[in-house]
Design the sequence.
């Protein structure tokens, strides 16, 4: 009796084998297609080094575009000063390298307008460069690219970028005490830089 | 400049070579159509300081420029 059952099971297995093999082949053929159709396995893998590499490239690009003084300022202090182009009074037009007002450009923070002569803070301009690629604005520019974008916008078409920005009194997003501290750091940085530049001249 | 990626090379070529120039013009227009701003880093002839020059047409690009940088247009944050 047992021998008969074993023989029957063997016959069933032999008869079912082609059917099972065909099913397995169909499943194997369907598997890559399902993966490329956007299943959960299709999610973009997170690359922890991508942002760091992007920032590294952005720093090089910024360095190649701005003046040596501005690059040194950003490298040492974390922001760049850009001179304002407009003059409200005739006397301001004769200032030469000393503009009537200037901007502090921070990465991913508002642009701050101030008066270099008195240190008076004028206003902060909230501006961003959103993702236009339709990715839902998930990404933003690397920090140095954000600074470069603001620098290019201010030095090429100051009016346009200021018109597009949201203007507020200083203190809405940035701490005025911190901005004043940055102005002091900038003054110290320029003083030290001036001394360093004078030393080689005096050694001649 | 591409958010999330940083600098991306879009196209390169010699503008004096016809095929290259056509490719550069096509890419230039595509970027502007996508809403990007285009700027060229230049040196101010008066002060000698570096600054950027916005370009809205391919013909506006200064002939001695080495590159045009496209970046997302500014909006109020």
Sequence:
């Amino acid at each position: 009796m047992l021998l008969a059952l074993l023989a029957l099971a063997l016959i069933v297995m032999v008869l079912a084998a082609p059917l099972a093999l065909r099913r397995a082949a169909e499943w194997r053929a369907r598997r890559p297609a399902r993966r490329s159709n956007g299943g959960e396995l299709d999610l973009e893998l997170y690359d922890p080094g991508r942002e760091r590499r992007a920032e590294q490239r952005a720093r090089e690009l910024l360095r190649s575009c701005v003046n040596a003084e501005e690059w040194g300022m950003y490298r040492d202090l974390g922001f760049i000063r850009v001179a304002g182009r407009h003059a409200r009074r005739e006397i301001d037009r004769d200032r030469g390298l000393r503009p009537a007002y200037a901007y502090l450009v921070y990465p991913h923070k508002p642009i701050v307008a101030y008066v270099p002569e008195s240190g008076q803070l004028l206003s902060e301009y909230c501006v961003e460069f959103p993702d236009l690629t339709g990715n839902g604005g998930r990404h933003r520019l690397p920090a140095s690219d954000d600074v470069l974008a603001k620098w290019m916008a201010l030095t090429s078409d100051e009016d346009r970028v200021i018109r597009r920005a949201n203007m507020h009194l200083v203190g809405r997003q940035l701490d005025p005490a911190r901005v004043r501290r940055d102005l002091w750091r900038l003054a110290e940085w320029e003083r030290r830089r001036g001394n360093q530049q004078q030393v080689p001249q005096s050694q001649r | 400049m591409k958010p999330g990626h940083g600098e991306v090379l879009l196209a390169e070529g010699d503008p004096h070579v016809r095929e290259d120039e056509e490719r550069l013009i096509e890419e230039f227009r595509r970027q502007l159509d996508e809403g990007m701003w285009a700027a060229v880093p230049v040196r101010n002839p008066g002060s000698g300081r570096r600054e950027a020059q916005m370009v809205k047409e391919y013909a506006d690009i200064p002939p001695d420029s080495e590159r045009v940088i496209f970046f997302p247009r500014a909006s109020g944050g």
The mean pLDDT of chain B is 90. The first helix of chain B runs from residue 18 to 33.
